[in-house]
Amino acid sequence: MSDPDAGNSLGFLLTDVARLFRQQLEKAVIDAGIDLTPGEIRALSHVARHEGSRQAVLAERMGVEPMTLSAYLDRLETRGLVKRSPDPNDRRAKVINTTDKADNVFANARPITLEVYDRITRGLSDGERDEIERLLSHVRENMTSEPIIVSDDVQRKPVPIA
């Protein structure tokens, strides 16, 4: 078992790799001249991945404050890339969906994300890539299925961050 205090512990590696991946992807998006901020692209990607989700759920899945997501969604809605609609189960809440116009953004961003993915996995076989994805999926499942202890007598089940 690795030493959790060491620089190559699982927690350190996960955090560091996630940070470096996000930096490389954001730089590639900016260099490609896609006319959205990295945060807007990230928000748009989460909306596409979780079509019809409530705004509050999307904010939690992204790990951002609801007001931060709201600002991203305001700009994306102004550009016609997302649409907010009343939740059919609770008209006070809004659900978010992408529009057909968002498909163009994804078509332009896809080659960029594939290039970054290829660069960060350079030297790994297809089997090793598959194994990393399998193992990280398992770790994510562990973290999203276990109750979080808030205090000695209160537990809550986290919203999956998939």
Automatic annotation (TrEMBL):
GO biological process terms held by the UniProt record: response to stress
Listed PROSITE patterns: HTH_MARR_1, HTH_MARR_2
InterPro entries according to UniProt: HTH_MarR-typ (IPR000835), MarR/SlyA-like (IPR039422), Tscrpt_reg_MarR-type_CS (IPR023187), WH-like_DNA-bd_sf (IPR036388), WH_DNA-bd_sf (IPR036390)
Listed GO MF terms: DNA binding; DNA-binding transcription factor activity
Keywords linked to the UniProt accession: DNA-binding, Transcription, Transcription regulation
A matching Pfam family: MarR
PANTHER family, alphabetized: TRANSCRIPTIONAL REGULATOR SLYA, TRANSCRIPTIONAL REGULATOR, MARR FAMILY
Protein name in UniProt: Putative transcription regulator protein
